[in-house]
Amino acid sequence: MVYSLVFITTLMATILYAFYLWLIPKPIPGIPYNRDSTHRPLGDALDMLREVSITSEFNLWCAKQVDKLNSPICQVFVNPFSKPWVLLADFAESQDIMLRRKEFDRSKFISGGMAPLGHFQSTLPTDDTWREARLWTQDLMTPTFLNNFAGPAAYSSVGELIRLWKTKARLAQGRSFSAATDLNNVSTDTMLQFTFGDHFPHASQREQIDRISSLDPATLSIGDENRAIEFPEAPVDTYITATHEGTDYVEKAVNSWISELTMWWVTKTPRYKRVMATKNRVIREQIEISLRNVRRGAVRTGVDHMVSREIALAEKHGRSPKYGGQKFRDEVFGLTLAGLHTTSAALGWIVKFLAENQDVQSRLRSELRSAYGKAVEERREPKFEELNHPRHPYLEAVVEEALRCHSTTVTREAVTDTELLGHHIPKGTVVFCVSNGPGFYKPALPVNDSKRSPTSKAAAKPKAWDESRDLSAFYPDRWLVQKSSNEKTGETRLEFDGNSGPQLIFGAGPRGCFGRRLAYIEMRILTALTVWNFQFLQTPKELSSHAATDGISHRATQCYVRLEEM
Ligand code: HEM
To answer: Is 74 labelled a binding residue?
Structure first.
């Protein structure tokens, strides 16, 4: 009896111990990690959750782990029962895996969160379905489409924002107001124009302009100067709401610890079903319109181009066209989602930095006024064509620096067993390319060059930032270089150099951001035209925090403006 009790107890203890051993994280040999985490079944998860529940900044937590472990490559154990996540804090190697290494592909870290919204290029591995989606969209980032259609659309959306802000600035009487929704709306309208053009009868900003213009100023409470005025918002069309709700679902899933369960739950809600039904209905109607346009040779909008491409592909391969299918509709929706939240988050940082750096703002305004003297003379704003070509170096530098200062982490997944900085990386491991730590916001960590991959060794070493300049500060000049403009006289001029130093805001390589050219156009136009029309005054410190949330993009939690019309 006693023997069997001892036997049962020992067996139970052994089973429990085996279960514990199965649960606790299994580090990848040789890659530094937090030792305490390997004694806890949940590894670093609780630590991460504790901090991220307060800061909402997962990227910041990652950068802190790199600092703690003081290594350009380290690992954390966040997802129970799955492989460690590898944090890579070295620009050259990050760029190498994105640009050159076939052993790494799009990871499911963020794209998995988009899965309930359909299968579009952002969510797909680099397979034939992704290649097909790329073929459909290949005309949309050409200079012809950007200069003749998408760019002017962005210019007109920004024009509406200027109208709205002029009215709001007058009503606000020097007080701050939130810019977050307005910037979301400007990006939404740009993306709607980009995909559907004028075939889609709704926009976000027009409704807001009408609402604010007809507002009785007496209904606004101009309170304490440290608080923001709250303007009412007009309701928008259901498809526009669907695009915003779509991004909200992605944010929810990405920020959830149990993202697969969250996604499953999301898809069961009536709201989700409504969003998807609206999306499918509107896109189906738009494809029908585009089909008619293509047939009469009037290809203008993004969807017109996609339909036209698909007809050509179907003819080439002797098959029926797929523009009536779900994948095609998903791709249209996916493009809008990919370009909306990301761009509006970036615009939010730009306006914050302009207000906080009055010297930069004044220099930009005065450089723009002398570059576009004809516009000043004719008492008008610079036109799209003027802003688009030639580009203004300081304008480009201001935009790029705002992007650098609030970067997001790009990930890749090992699709086969491989190596990174001399360490074995098992297939399925997710690598986070940390772009808000060493090499980006502080001096780079030393790396043994002999451990780099063969492709990294063979490539030219990317430029590092000049560490004598405070890398955590907003300093657009770091993107400018002196170039000879006249060899005979030795005259030089400042030029923008996008490769001045590490930057990974758009990722890189074949899976880098598809829409970056459009995003730059929108950011340059908005920066130039807002600075032309307004002085961004410093907002009170209660409304000026740099806290952010991480999801699809790294978004400021407080995005307020205080405007004085120029
Ligand atoms: C400032 C604005 C933007 C930022 C910061 C941004 C950032 C990114 C990042 C980090 C990625 C992943 C890159 C990688 O994994 O290497 C990405 C992918 C993508 N972006 Fe953007 N993006 C922006 C604007 C846009 C716009 C305007 C569009 C649409 C026209 C767009 C369309 C896409 C698409 C389709 C992908 C997926 C590409 C693929 O998976 O092959 N993005 N973007």
So the answer is: no
